[in-house]
């Protein structure tokens, strides 16, 4: 196909940000961090390698995901603890904030709710930035490793992909069967994972995560949350996933309860204000 005569001129047009986000409600990070600093630990869950665990975080509490023992990435799902139909919306969070989430950015919930579920208040990998390959950490561009894609590409039956791990964890937490739980599993926040798109072919890539034991990501729970975290079978995702080949390590989830009064002036965000009439 021959390009049109004005091809270079069309390519030269400067991009426009789809969703200028300076009108998003800004989180009060100082308040959230002060509440965390005075908080008491309320519980913890150790997520075994190549497996997942569920956890609950009341609104106003903080949860921390930490690397322990060795470099490991995690796949995070969040639901409204009282209504599983409200769940993390990876695609809209990506549209609002970009390909990777950073401190001060939010995990937004699905329609018709579209409100902040959790806010990142600290990230010990914030120094990483964007590397020369276009890679960065904590993406919302991947989905989650799953046995269907593995079967499609190589005919395998592998049962410890993040999709299956999250399905079992949700089933164990709620009493659902795995077939009942599976449709609630959704695209994740790829915690600690280092990813991007290749510049030449636009393909999704991963590379060894820069995470080391002690690194952590802190979240402020904006609503009552049910979470599930999978310690991905890809380990640090330096080579492959969807198999037992990579070295894998546990991930630690800790929940912290602020002192009474520490969040005075803060209220859990209401559901989105659109009237849902859709023009009828
Ligand atoms: Zn995975």
Short structural summary:
The termini are far apart. The model has no long low-confidence stretch (mean pLDDT 95). With 280 residues, the chain is of the alpha+beta class.
How would you describe the overall organization of this protein?
The chain is 17% helix and 29% strand. It is globular. The model has no long low-confidence stretch (mean pLDDT 95). Strands 2, 4, 5, 8, 9, 10 and 12 form a 7-stranded antiparallel β-sheet that branches. The protein is built from 6 helices and 13 strands. The chain has helices at residues 7-11, 29-37, 90-97, 147-154, 162-174, 178-181, and strands at 40-47, 52-57, 62-67, 74-80, 83-87, 106-108, 116-123, 136-139, 189-197, 204-207, 216-221, 225-231, 251-257. Residues 75, 144-145, 161-162, 232, 234, 241 line the site of zinc ion.
Secondary structure blueprint with pairings:
Layout (H helix, E strand, L loop, with lengths): L6 H5 L17 H9 L2 E8 L4 E6 L4 E6 L6 E7 L2 E5 L2 H8 L8 E3 L7 E8 L12 E4 L7 H8 L7 H13 L3 H4 L7 E9 L6 E4 L8 E6 L3 E7 L19 E7 L23
Antiparallel strand pairs: 1-13, 2-12, 3-11, 3-13, 4-5, 4-9, 4-12, 6-7, 7-11, 8-9, 9-10
The structure holds zinc ion.
What are its keywords?
280 residues, alpha+beta, 7-stranded antiparallel beta sheet, 6-stranded antiparallel beta sheet, globular, binds zinc ion
